[in-house]
Design brief:
Elements: H1 14-30, H2 41-50, H3 60-70, H4 78-104, H5 112-127, H6 130-136, H7 143-162, H8 167-184, H9 194-204, H10 212-226, H11 231-234, H12 237-257, H13 264-288, H14 302-309, H15 326-338, H16 346-371, H17 373-394, H18 423-445, H19 451-461, H20 470-475, H21 486-495, E1 503-506, H22 513-520, E2 529-532, H23 539-547, H24 579-583, E3 588-590, E4 596-599, E5 602-605, E6 610-612, H25 613-625, E7 631-634, H26 640-645, E8 651-654, E9 657-660, E10 671-674, E11 678-681, H27 682-691, H28 695-699, H29 712-731, H30 735-752
Parallel strand pairs: 1-2, 1-7, 8-11
Antiparallel strand pairs: 3-6, 4-5, 7-9, 8-9, 10-11
């Protein structure tokens, strides 16, 4: 006879959940990145190291937690410590999902060992989904911490529902509100479990939603995480609406029970929300005012703080203005979803495995509908929030690789793949898969008489759980970060390309954030001043350039090419402006036709009639430093100085960079003219390419090539430098060196093939 469903009061399997989380952690540990990576990895590692402020919204919870974690000497490499932080938070979320899956299956899978096995199988699918695994093997973003907070809030909601009604259970709601408020100071993604918990409350004890302290808790939490509470000071229609809502709630509280204002639950609710959200309003301005090396947005004033928290820097349009049509935004999500289960196996393998696990997820959702409506509605709400609602709210442009109908013409695309924004949905789908696998086991076990026969049948059905190993097998090549050091090596190579006390002008995230990491965490060439063209459109970056005190060049720690360098440390700021001068600079400047500037023998002609703030400040950097500090443009900025200033006759390629000279160049005396690189300082380039750069990191074999296409432009810089370098060496008859450069370029190019 089939045993009756387990009691909701059955003790949760905490030990098994811990073992499940440990198993997932081992997977991440074996594929962990040995150092930093591209995109935001370097920025967040550096921010954790210096207790700084990364890009908006500032992520203070991540910074504080990662800084404390990074202080624990688990391993020598600080980058590995922070990567371990991503792995451990993601694995912990898997353990919490295990508890949720076990609880939801109690009315679906009556045999305990089968239920535990199905729960582990499901969370393994979620944990080895491609994006989840990829984000858990390196701390690229703050989203593994968001996964943890989402799983924690969901589990607390489930645990609240199983507790006995009364004040003890009510305190779980206070804790849930605190976790939601606190997780919003990491990223708003941590708030997305709140609707699922609300459904759980509604389906468990609807009367809770009529209690005044619960309504106050909901109002305060909503105002806190949305930042709308600031409207009380700013005025306008929003303030009137908030005051009206608060007034109605006061009246309702007096009508329901005036004594509510004297009970501790109301004030405990207020305290939980205020303390939870406080990191945004205390840590950010206090730390920003100490001017740490990573201090994006510099939220030292109330206005600057609001701009950081509201992400004003990114200028997102209203949700009513769709940056891509909604069907395409949905299609882009499904494209990312199709990557999750076997990205190593090509298009056909991805389609088949996506169909399989989608089917299992639907089976699981159907089983919950039949056996546990409360769990069904909570899980359905969670998935709808993490997919449809999130897709609508994010309002992305067309995806980087999303196929667009040619009839639409040229469309605006995201600069990179945005699958990581949906990482929580890819992880949480493992809950439905767990229930689906448990249901399939139940179906296969059949109904027989006698406990022994039933146990045998469940055991015979167990092999179906082997399906959970498919993502582990199908993603292990491309989700792994093991052995990849090119971002760190690129940062070192780029910094060592320039003379001591240089100004290095870079283009964007991938050619700048690794340099921040190298300088702040590993102490590599801190004497180099970095000016980022995209950030030079912000006042805070310009102020940081203005006030930066140049560290002393450490010849002993530098590359051999610079160890015999003799020179003096400049003491003047790189920008000769006051704080007020920078704040008054125009965002856009219209120039007279055919205008230009001259600094000594350096004559520059503007290539366009309209320039933006970054263009103006580039000119002022040149004006204030030419002849005083070496000025370089990274080749990642491509033809920017040629197009903006017609500076080609003054630029000499030296490896991965171009040096701006104060006089026109001409072929001869070690200077050759290349078709692709312009003037090339041959001897300096030779010493950099073969005596300084770690080209082995760029040219290493990669089984599936370079997976992240948007960042392969950085890897391609090595291909260009060595391929064009070979051309230059061949020009002067050095065929041996040219052949060596060609072989390296060919090896790098193998990773760039699609």
């Amino acid at each position: 006879m089939t045993p009756p469903p387990a009691s909701p009061r059955e003790r949760p399997p905490y030990l098994w959940a811990a073992l499940a989380g440990l198993a997932v952690f081992v997977i991440y540990l074996t594929t962990l990145a040995p150092t930093t990576a591209f995109w935001d990895t370097s920025e967040y590692i550096a921010a954790a190291y210096v207790l700084g402020i990364p890009h908006p919204p500032g992520n203070p919870l991540f910074t504080v937690l990662a800084h404390v974690w990074g202080a624990i000497p688990l391993v020598e490499s600080y980058a590995v410590r922070i990567n371990l932080f991503a792995a451990i938070t993601s694995a912990a979320s898997a353990g919490l999902y295990f508890l949720v899956a076990d609880r939801w299956m109690r009315d679906v899978v009556p045999v305990r060992w089968a239920r535990l096995a199905a729960a582990f199988a499901g969370i393994l699918v979620g944990a080895t989904a491609w994006t989840v695994w990829n984000q858990s093997a390196v701390n690229e973003k703050v989203y593994t911490l968001s996964m943890l907070s989402t799983a924690l809030v969901l589990w607390l909601g489930v645990h609240w529902a199983d507790d006995q009604a009364g004040q003890h259970r009510d305190r779980w709601l206070i804790l849930i509100a605190y976790v939601i408020a606190l997780s919003s100071t990491n990223h708003m993604m941590g708030v997305l479990a709140a609707p699922a918990v609300a459904i759980y409350v509604l389906r468990t004890e609807p009367a809770m939603l009529l209690k005044p302290w619960v309504l106050w808790l909901g109002l305060l939490l909503g105002l806190a995480v949305s930042g709308k509470w600031t409207a009380l000071a700013e005025g306008g229609a929003e303030r009137a609406g908030i005051l009206l809502l608060a007034g109605l709630l006061v009246a309702y509280t007096f009508w329901r029970d005036a004594a509510e204002f004297r009970r501790p639950m109301l004030y405990l609710a207020v305290l939980a929300v205020v303390v939870g959200i406080s990191l945004n309003y205390f840590f950010l301005p206090i730390r920003a005012a100490q001017y740490p090396p990573i201090n994006e947005g510099e939220p030292v004033t109330w206005i600057a703080l609001q701009e950081v928290l509201n992400r004003a820097q990114y200028g997102k349009p209203s949700l009513l203005f769709r940056q891509a049509d909604f069907p395409s935004q949905l299609g882009n999500y499904f494209q990312y979803f199709s990557w999750q289960f076997a990205r190593d196996w090509g298009p056909m393998g991805m389609r088949m495995t996506t169909a399989l696990f989608s089917f299992l997820a639907l089976v699981g959702a159907t089983a919950l509908w039949r056996r546990d409506r409360r769990a069904f509605w909570a899980s359905a709400t969670l998935m709808l929030t993490l997919t449809l609602a999130l897709i609508f709210y994010l309002n992305f442009k067309y995806g980087f690789s999303y196929p667009v109908d040619p009839s639409k013409g040229r469309v605006l695309r995201e600069v990179r793949e945005r699958d990581y924004f949906f990482v929580v949905s890819f992880s949480a789908v493992g809950l439905w898969v767990a229930v689906g696998l448990g249901s399939v086991m139940q179906l296969l076990s059949g109904l027989r008489r006698g406990a022994a026969a039933e146990a045998r049948d469940w055991a015979l059905a167990a092999p179906v759980l082997g399906l959970a190993l498919i993502p582990l097998a199908g993603n292990h090549l491309t989700a792994s970060r093991a052995g990849e050091t090119v971002a760190r090596d690129f940062a070192r190579d780029l910094l060592e390309s320039v003379e001591p006390y240089s100004i290095l002008i870079t283009a964007g995230d991938n050619d700048t954030f690794p340099l921040w990491y190298a300088q702040e965490v590993e102490g590599i060439r801190r004497d180099v001043t970095l000016a980022n063209l995209s950030l030079m459109n912000t006042r805070w970056h310009l102020q940081q350039l203005r006030r930066r005190v140049t560290p002393v060049f450490d010849a002993a720690a530098a590359a051999p090419i610079w160890r015999d360098w003799k020179g003096e440390r400049p003491t003047a700021p790189v920008l000769n402006f006051s704080e007020a001068d920078i704040n008054q600079m125009p965002e856009v400047q219209l120039l007279p036709p055919n205008s230009g500037v001259r600094f000594g023998s350096l004559e520059l002609a503007f290539g366009r009639d309209t320039v933006i703030l970054a263009d103006l400040m580039t000119v002022f950097l040149i004006r204030d430093n030419i002849g005083k500090r070496p000025i370089y443009f990274s080749w990642s900025a491509a033809g920017y100085p040629d197009e903006l200033l017609n500076a080609t006759p003054y630029l000499a390629t030296e490896g991965l960079v171009r040096r701006l000279n104060d006089a026109r160049l001409a072929p001869g005396a070690g200077m050759v003219l290349s078709r692709s690189l312009g003037f090339v300082d041959l001897e300096r380039t030779r010493r950099l390419l073969f005596g300084t750069y770690n080209y082995d990191a760029a040219s290493r074999a990669r089984p599936r090539g370079w997976v992240d296409r948007p960042s392969q432009t950085i890897l391609s810089l090595y291909n260009i430098a060595y391929r064009a370098g070979a051309e230059s060496f061949r020009t002067v008859g050095d065929t041996a060196t040219a052949a060596r450069a060609d072989s390296i370029a060919t090896a790098v190019g193998a990773s760039l093939k699609e």
